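Working notes for the structural subgroup meeting. M.R. asked for a predicted model of this chain before we commit to crystallization trials. I am recording the input and output together here so anyone reviewing the notebook later can reproduce the run.

Input as submitted:
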Amino acid sequence: MLKSVKLGAVTLLLAFAYQPTPASANAEQLVASICDYVASNDKNRLRSKLSDSGIRLRNIYDGVKCNGQSLLRFAMSSGADDTGEFIAKQLPGSSLGAPEADGQTVIAWADANGFGGTATAAAVKERL
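Returned structure, recorded in token form:
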């Protein structure tokens, strides 16, 4: 009887001591890492982070914003053509040609902001 009480007390103590990290904190950290890798034009670390997290870029693209911009716009404005080309190749053409939150497509935004001649814009145009 005493043994089962001790076992129950230990189990209860361990249950209260274990506090998992909230999913939102993990998601925020993942987005911060993705934005950092895009800004630093580190395609290999971006690919590795997505792979390690078991995430496909096409599934999260619409929900990830870096400095208020989509990943492709952020890559272009950061001069990160390697990661920009990687992102463009991972997304379906329907996503690349769709208007974003401001009503402009990625290409229309790039042309309007002087990024139409970048390698990232060329990769997007190639996929359309």
